[in-house]
Design brief:
Among the domains are: about 1-70, Immunoglobulin-like (Sandwich), CATH 2.60.40.420; about 325-445, Cupredoxins -  blue copper proteins (Immunoglobulin-like, Sandwich), CATH 2.60.40.420; about 465-619, Outer membrane phospholipase (ompla), Chain C (Beta Barrel). About 5% of the residues lie in helices and about 45% in strands. It has 6 helices and 42 strands. The strands form 8 sheets. A 12-stranded antiparallel β-barrel has the order 31-32-33-34-35-36-37-38-39-40-41-42. It has a 6-stranded mixed beta sheet with strand order 5-4-7-12-9-10, with no helix packed on it.
Length: about 625
């Protein structure tokens, strides 16, 4: 390639130098050069590899790895490796830039943007109002609007199998930001391995596979026909299919799209602690249509919210650490800012945080507390950890674990390595936006060539974008260049209708963002008749009302309030009111209809410049 790259062997235990994380364990592979990875195979199972450089994984740098055991105890007629992924026709860097600007475009593309009319139709005005009152953004399950979902690089494949045969599927979720519901039209799936490690077999009709996970399942091919194995994107925006057998096709059951309006009730997500469920509520046996309680909430149509199978995963042998080992416990809170698309642990991105130190020989227990409205698949390099569940000493070993919205997950592992290892959210764009940490073994030293380039791992990247409205009576817009905490913005407003001369106002500001609600800024305000320094704060009020207060160098005061209200999927009502000790009250209101990603039609009334219409361009 004409750019540097890397390969990480996901789930495979390798020496630190071979782990393939640029600037952390392995120098990046420079364009036009060769790197040979060499490591012993010390365990078997289903794994995969992918680039850990930039967003190359989204562009297709990934693939499957199957390490066969020396002796195969499970007899099957056939094996099939299924690599699940998501695909966008956009440049992945452009996808991330779109997310960074807080755009709702992908929600609009998927038809999942929450709106006033949508809430009325769903009978969820109360939920929508409550969410807005608590300053939460509209709920969505996946950040990106994908063009297709793939299995082995295709939306649909066919796999040969005969009636009565047992087929072993090795399922790998190599997607960049999509969880999948898995189901087979021919009957239940028998899970025999999770993340490459064998577990006690358990039959499931349907379960959720997180990004980065692998599961081995056994299928019994029914008599006559071809039966669909379907991977449905968790947000309901599409699916990929593998047809098993030949003849008349039997599709897998349709999974209704999630009701996003109802997915947030009383500040808690509609996901419960599966360990509290009784056997007859077994997710794999199909939750019955009706009502059930989870964490004190009433859920309707519970079969629509099948979760990961962790409560039913039981190791074949004890996994508990040896008695007498010192245990160190830490809690990490998963946090984020959806509007600016910043993701982190404990409100600190990788570029801001210290390493997590561990002493070789101790047991590290990590409690993940998810303070966001999204699932996060957390992957630890170089180790298998125990996912602590009701099976105690037989808790399953995994390398990737889903932490559900407003939920928690507890893992522990024996610290038996050295040097530094990566731990991160495996939603590619979340990792790139900061949700990662370095696990550091005390007393270990970096290789000199790694030490010389380590600073590149902690770079805080900058992104830029602009919005320009060109109307019959005025023009306005803003341009921004932003990193995790810092932003430089240019905002302008120029009007020529209903005024004696063209009036303009331009603000050039530097902002420091403390969190998703508060930032402070300093800058310069330019108008027709004066140029003044300004100092102020921006704050998100209840009902998601954006507010601004500033004082200029002449002692004048200004406050501004603005809100967007989505009427239907593509139509937004916007309004803004401003009070200034010089100009007194000023305001505007309008409607915007999104045609496509860069272009909208807009009509606007302004208290000084009157009524006009035009277009809004996004760069």
């Amino acid at each position: 390639m004409d750019e540097e790259t890397s390969i990480h062997w996901h789930g495979v235990l390798v020496p630190n130098r071979q782990d393939g994380v640029p600037y952390l364990t392995t120098p990046p592979i420079k364009p036009g050069t060769t790197l040979t990875y060499e490591f012993p195979l010390i365990h078997s199972g289903t794994y995969w590899y992918h680039s850990h450089s930039g967003l190359q994984e989204q562009a297709g740098v990934y693939g499957s790895i199957v390490i066969e055991p020396k002796r195969q105890d499970i007899k099957v007629n056939r094996e099939c490796v299924l690599v699940l992924s998501d695909w966008t026709d956009e440049d992945p860097e452009e996808v991330l830039r779109t997310l960074k600007r807080g755009s709702d475009y992908y929600l609009i593309k998927k038809g999942t943007a929450q709106s006033l009319i949508g809430a009325i139709k769903a009978g969820a005005i109360g939920e929508m109002f409550h969410r807005s009152l608590t300053r939460m953004p509209p709920m969505d399950i996946s950040d990106v609007g994908y063009d297709r979902f793939l299995v082995n690089g295709m939306p649909e494949i066919e796999h040969e199998a005969l009636p009565g045969e047992t087929v072993r599927l090795r399922i790998i979720n190599a997607s960049s930001s999509t969880y999948f519901h898995l189901q087979f039209a021919g009957g239940p799936m028998k899970v025999i391995s999770a993340d490459g490690v064998d577990v006690e077999p358990v039959k499931l009709n349907r379960f959720l596979i997180a990004i980065g996970e692998t599961y081995d399942v056994l299928l019994k091919i029914p008599q006559n026909g071809s039966y669909e194995f379907r991977a449905t994107a968790q947000d309901g925006s599409g699916h990929a299919s593998a047809w098993m057998g030949s003849g008349e096709k039997t599709p897998a059951p349709y999974i209704p799209k999630p009701n996003l309006y109802k997915m947030h009730i009383n500040g808690e997500m509609m996901h419960g602690d599966m360990d509290k469920m009784t056997p007859h509520e077994h997710v794999g046996e199909g939750w019955k249509t009706g009502h059930m309680h989870m964490n004190g909430m009433m859920m309707e149509k519970a079969e629509e919210t099948a979760l990961t199978p962790y409560p039913y995963l039981r190791s074949l042998s004890p996994t508990a650490p040896k008695e007498g080992l010192k245990t160190k416990t830490i809690t990490l809170t998963l946090t984020g800012n959806m509007e600016r698309y910043v993701w982190h642990f404990d409100n600190k991105t990788l570029s801001e945080a210290d390493v997590i130190s561990v002493n070789k020989g101790e047991v590290l227990r990590i409690v993940f507390v998810n303070d966001t409205m999204m699932h996060h698949p957390i992957h630890l390099h170089g180790h298998f950890f125990r996912v602590l569940n009701k099976h105690g000493d037989y808790a399953p070993l995994k390398h990737t674990v889903d932490v559900p919205p407003s939920g928690r997950q507890e893992i522990e592992f024996h610290a038996n390595e050295d040097k530094d290892w990566f731990m991160h959210c495996h939603i590619l764009y979340h990792m790139k936006a900061g949700m990662a940490r370095v696990i550091h073994y005390e007393g270990s030293k970096m290789d000199p060539d790694i030490a010389a380039i380590r600073h590149n791992l902690f770079k805080d990247h900058w992104y830029q974008w602009a919005d320009v409205s060109l109307l019959s009576h005025m023009t306005e817009g803003n341009a921004v260049i932003s990193s995790t905490r810092h932003a430089i913005g240019l905002r302008w407003e120029v009007g020529w209708e209903k005024v004696e001369k063209t009036e303009y106002e331009v603000d050039l500001t530097y902002d420091y963002h403390f969190d998703r609600f508060l930032s402070a800024f300093v800058g310069v305000n330019f108008t027709n008749d004066h140029n003044e320094g300004i100092f102020g704060v921006r704050y998100m009020l209840p009902l998601n009302i954006e507010s601004l207060v500033w004082v200029n160098t002449n002692g004048d005061f200004r406050c501004r309030f603005g809100k967007l209200l989505r009427i239907v999927n593509r139509l937004v009502l916007f309004n803004e009111a401003e009070y200034d000790t010089k100009k007194k009250w000023e305001g505007d209101a309008g409607l915007e209809w999104t045609l496509n990603k860069p272009l909208s039609l807009t009509a606007q009334w302004h208290s000084e410049f009157g009524l006009g219409a035009g277009i809004r361009l996004r760069f």
